[in-house]
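Before we proceed, please read the two lines closing this message. Tell me what the token row says about the fold.
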Amino acid sequence: MYSVAKFSSRTGLLGTPLPSPFPSFELENIRFRYGATSMIAGKPGAFKSVLALNMLVFWSQGGFPAIYFSADSDEHTVARRLAGIITRAKSEKVDADFTSGSYAAYLPALRTLSTARFEYKAVDLEGIAERLNAYEAVYGAFPALVFIDNLINFADSTGDWEQMRDMTNELDKLARETTSHICVLHHASESWGRASDPVPRAAIQGKITQIPRLALTCAADNRRLKVACVKNTNGPQYPDANRWLDFTVEQSLAITDNSRRLL
């Protein structure tokens, strides 16, 4: 048994927040904590991966090591998106340059993500743990952040919600064991409401939000990105997604925080 007053000597970084990637997240007490899990959910095309990659750039350039498991997008696509986010070059130009092989100018920008590592195979939970252990063996510590993009690609069947719930539970245990923050991207029901509005917590497929401490749902309204905090064990939450934060996705795919909350 333990004395709660002596928690700091045992827990270290466990439970402490990482720096907020956006000012409005800070204002709304939306915090990504060491040793915990979060979820970003939305319908297809809701800028889930774009949001996650912008967050990755913020943390990696700030010196926080990360592993991004991208089973939803190939290496070429991820590199193009990151090049646009970092350089602020329009995605059409980045796509054209990458297609023609004229991507050398973007390499210095991509090298600013020196603390980030990427995996493009849909490995199982054991494979994720193996890669985290390998990272710790090489670098002497587990990464601060782990992104799973996205959950449905790591299941044996796209309709096996029970397996995805079990995997989310195991990822939460893994987060505590490694003290990493694990952010899981997941789909939401396309039949719920308007495509331009974030879905409520009940519309997240498989109803697997019991485990993550933080759950955000997002929606794309042209170049406007709306993000609702539908679960937050450490701050305000709006399960019905009736309040959201407002962002702009620039043509480079970099996200601008408009720093205001909408009703």
Observations:
- Residues 1-11 have pLDDT under 50 and may be disordered.
- The first strand starts at residue 37 and ends at 42.
